[in-house]
Design brief:
The protein is an alpha/beta fold and 204 residues long. The protein is built from 8 helices and 6 strands; from the N terminus they run ααβαβαβααααβββ. The longest helix is centred in the last third of the chain and has 20 residues. It is globular, with a radius of gyration of 18 Å. The structure holds zinc ion. Zinc ion binds next to helix 5.
Length: 204
């Protein structure tokens, strides 16, 4: 816990005083433009990758960056998406999966999560990733197969996202864009799925 207390002290004495006005502004409300739907993985920090400050990015995190399809039982991810689209009015919803994803790995390994009933049930949403599996990237080495599936998971979750009623409605009304992105932890590269080319291409 010491690490957290030290960090908090630094926030109170250095970070907050420097940005006091900004935090006062934030206290009035939020109007984030982006909703990131990403993994609970501690290595994935979209705020750091894209240099986004508090107040500008809503984040829905879960094992494997999952989006349950429409009609699934009520859950935190679906509720967060609905709120972000309808109340916060985000303009972009981004599925943000990553390399070497332990959730994707264990979800696709037979009996991988046998002792974790909740996680195992949640992971059923990753099954369709195999239908969208992407070509192997030789740069991925021993993780090539896993990462091909992790990229497939981007497309699987993107398909689920489009089925969410709030998302479908916002897409029809032209007030929301959806994106499928993949983040390689080792190199820092981000790729986006290009619908026209039917493949992942560098974001920049
Ligand atoms: Zn992950």
């Amino acid at each position: 816990m010491e690490r957290l207390i030290e960090g908090y002290k630094r926030f109170l004495t250095e970070v907050f005083p420097e940005r006091k006005n900004y935090f006062h502004l934030l206290a009035e409300g939020q109007a984030p433009k982006y909703l990131f739907i990403t993994c609970a993985d501690s290595r994935v920090s979209p705020e750091m990758v894209f240099g986004i400050e508090p107040g500008n990015m809503a984040i829905a995190r879960s094992l494997g960056s999952m989006v349950p399809p429409a009609g699934s039982e009520n859950n935190g991810i679906t509720a967060t998406i609905e709120y972000a689209v309808e109340i916060l009015g985000v303009r972009h919803a981004i599925i943000f999966c990553h390399s070497n994803c332990g959730s994707v790995r264990s979800a696709l390994a037979p009996g991988g999560l046998k002792k974790l009933p909740y996680a195992q049930k949640w992971m059923e949403y990753v099954r369709t990733a195999a239908n969208y599996r992407q070509p192997l990237d030789p740069n991925d080495g021993k993780n090539a197969e896993l990462n091909a599936l992790a990229k497939g998971n981007v497309l699987a979750q993107l398909a689920n996202l489009r089925t969410q009623p709030s998302v479908a409605k916002a897409l029809t009304e032209g007030r929301l864009n959806v994106h499928g992105w993949y983040y390689d932890i080792e190199s820092g590269r981000v790729e986006r799925y290009d619908e026209a080319q039917k493949r992942f291409v560098p974001l920049v």
